[in-house]
Description:
Layout: E1 40-41, E2 49-51, H1 56-66, E3 70-74, E4 80-85, H2 86-90, H3 92-101, H4 110-113, E5 115-116, E6 122-124, H5 125-128, H6 133-143, E7 147-153, E8 160-167, H7 168-174, H8 184-196
Parallel strand pairs: 2-3, 6-7
Antiparallel strand pairs: 1-8, 3-4, 4-5, 7-8
Amino acid sequence: xxxxxxxxxxxxxxxxxxxxxxxxxxxxxxxxxxxxxxxxxxxxxxxxxxxxxxxxxxxxxxxxxxxxxxxxxxxxxxxxxxxxxxxxxxxxxxxxxxxxxxxxxxxxxxxxxxxxxxxxxxxxxxxxxxxxxxxxxxxxxxxxxxxxxxxxxxxxxxxxxxxxxxxxxxxxxxxxxxxxxxxxxxxxxxxxxxxxxx
Length: 198
């Protein structure tokens, strides 16, 4: 039933010293916390995407401006054709390509260093719903990756869609473990060391 009249809400002065709530006030999690609680859910947060022909510097800038280290690479129809990470844009791959091909860093494109769809693997939402944070960390550690995407079946088309993703760095933050690097081995060593002391 629709209301006929909406009354305005009351307002009050903002007092000196008022601060914004910080995201770090999220409840910390434990390895036994349901995994779904630390998944970035794309029903609630839009994924960050980039075109494959974009310059590599644009991928880096997109990550910095959105506070992420992972972008989906999409075609003109927004279909995923790969992914690119901060490790891809700032790691060994660009340096190696420049040595092999010649040229400058500014000439490299996302398609030059991205991970293509044919090389990607994913978790299923059905498995994630029965998993705990510890399962996700162990999975990421086993495959040597910083991120894992989560697929679910679109009920209308029956095709896979990306429902969300996990980030080792974000999980570490929620576990209360400071993460200072995107190197996979160091990330997991820091998480394990911090968990051993709690």
